[in-house]
Amino acid sequence: MSPVSGLFPLLLGAIVSPFGCSAHSGRSHRLHYFFTGVSEPGGGLPHFSIVGYLDDEQFVRYDSETRRDLPRSSWIRKMEEHDAQYWDWQTQLSRSWELYFRVSLWTRFNHSRGHHTWQWMHGCEVSADGRKGGLSQFGYDGRDFLSLDKETLTWTASNPKAQVTKRKWEADRVWTQGRKTFLEEDCIDWLHKYLNYGKETLLRKESPVVKVTRKAGYGDLETLLCRAHGFYPKEIDITWRMEGNVMEQETRRGGIAPNADGTYHTWLSIEVDTKDRDLYRCHVEHDSLPEPLDAAWEEAGVLWPLVAGISGAVAVVILLGVILVLYLKRRHEGYRATAFSLSLCNARCRNGEIFFFLLVEFIPSRPIGFVGLGGRCGADSPGPAMGAFRGLFFFFLFFPGTLAGSFSHSMRGFYTATWDPSQAQPQVAIVIYVDDQLATQYNSSTRQALPQVYWMEKMDEHIPSFWEVNTLKGQRLELRLKKTLENLKERSNQSTGFLTFQLMTGCEIRKNGHKEGYHQYSYNGRDFLSFDPKTQTWTAADLEAQITQRQWDGDVDYSRHVMYYVEEECPEDLQRFVEYGKESLLRRETPVVTISRKAYYDGLETLLCRVHGFYPKEIDVNWKRDGEVWVQDTFSGGILPNADGTYHTWISIEVEPKERDRYRCHVEHDSLEEPLVLAWEDRGSVWPLVGGVLGAVVGVLLVAAGIILYKKKGQEATEEEPQVEDPLMNG
What we know:
- By secondary structure, the protein is an alpha+beta fold.
- It has 5 domains: 8-202, Murine Class I Major Histocompatibility Complex, H2-DB, Chain A, domain 1; 209-301, Immunoglobulin-like (Sandwich); 306-398 and 685-731, no CATH class; 409-585, Murine Class I Major Histocompatibility Complex, H2-DB, Chain A, domain 1 (2-Layer Sandwich), CATH 3.30.500.10; 592-672, Immunoglobulin-like (Sandwich).
- Helix content is 30%, strand content 30%.
- The strands form 7 sheets. It has an 8-stranded antiparallel sheet with strand order 4-3-2-1-5-6-7-8, with helices on one face.
- A hairpin with a 2-residue loop joins strand 25 and strand 26.
- Helix 6 (303-331) packs antiparallel against helix 8.
């Protein structure tokens, strides 16, 4: 593996392009690597690791446990077809870097204890206009340390500790020149070579799926949120426009982030006056689109009119077909065609019954009855055909029905105290979430509890002095967190480094009414103490926590206070908040489901089902093969929140291409009247529905033409027949 990188955000699991590629730029390509060395491995983090990314797709990985460079994408396997020694050579390079990182941690920084990290990010970029760039940056303990200036062949130190290493590296011109040569020559060459091998994946185009949602705000204001997802390449131009004018200043944007299938998603929102909602459009431009896409909030449910169109057209086809059959059957039994007068039937209908009359021109001389919604007009009982019509029209008009099911709800509080040597005292931040909505916030700068969502602003109307009381609670918790962190710092005799002490507490009320609470502490990012409500005791995660455990077990009042909060106060507050915020917390939003596929290796491919934009959070998504749930070779992502308060998730499965048609993504959610089943062929295109509507319309026209022709011929053949008196006219 080439000498490359591993920067601080990697430990948090976020891969963000360091080259500042804008959503408004042309198509560009990036090759970058992340190196990470840790003094104390644990929690799935090895002593040393290297990961390589091409355009945000991980294609290679090395770590101190496998001690081998391993391919992470299908296209990189082609390298061994052209160079049989490729993987052995890359592995030897990676092992050399592993040795360098271990020596650096223990000799350069002279550490004998504690958790420390030493990281390197290294890579290059070729922009759409052909410009080339590169960077080489080092980080220590999660903070910037040194970065290379290629033009001057000097290193920029981010803090005083880095000055020693800066002077040493600048004196070693061979080391510094080697980094510059790699960035400007070797890295660019490898980037082009990898692009050639992975062009089927890396140079493809996938169109964005765009959805606009809205969320109530303060007063007459509301937030429109536009989400674009499933697009590739990464570059996209997306703006809010009002009557054609770009509203950039009023727009808030999210970053362009990768999906599990290698595509991307992003969002932007704008706060608007409710009465002006119809004037706004989400304008999207992307390489995969033949022309820009404009979406409004009203268009969020664009599929339902098509479905309704199909349903209505099919109903008319069935209706006309049955009428034709009845007419032909009874024609030779002494019946004739006549016009039906709506006023005639109205005169015979009683008790204010409301009817939906079938638009039928053919009435037998012995009435079979006309069935409507809520009653009938004519004979005492409808014929079998009309009974079928009753159910048919009820089905199409009232199919939506009512939605059943209850929600689970949760309230979680995150309390964080941090200490930095540059600070006089620890800083504290508190955030409270209700069903993943940020409800309230407190920090040691403002020292006030403040609402973060519109329905929380109403709390003072329901509970006098609500925010004043919660501000006092926040101030008391701030003092306790600061005191505990200072005690831990003194006990561990740690005067340097960044320290954190955190509390996660809250409760959940599930669909079946079951209540559950929790109260857990962590120190420096690791589990520390947790409260057991059943025994009202504390559990220590390690030896260091046992001292605090004994102190808190002896503090009976504090344990009782925690017990009361998680089992009584928290569930009561949660129920109260859900009632006040029910317009938002009890709503239902239907998931949008898309299927994509990606070539894998060894003749396999990956089918990925992405479900997004749904609310509430609970959802059942699985892959089915031939109608049976298929767990083998299935991988799923967590259920994560979107910026508009809805959720998204994904599930993938590895399959043989020849068996692809046997698999379906099966989705069940409270907002769906029946499970949604989707195959890869059914991917979000509306053309099959459009085709269905057109086909149904053609069917209607053909049936109508057949009826007219047959009627015309029948009238010509019976012109001389005696007329039969209509009993309805004489009744």
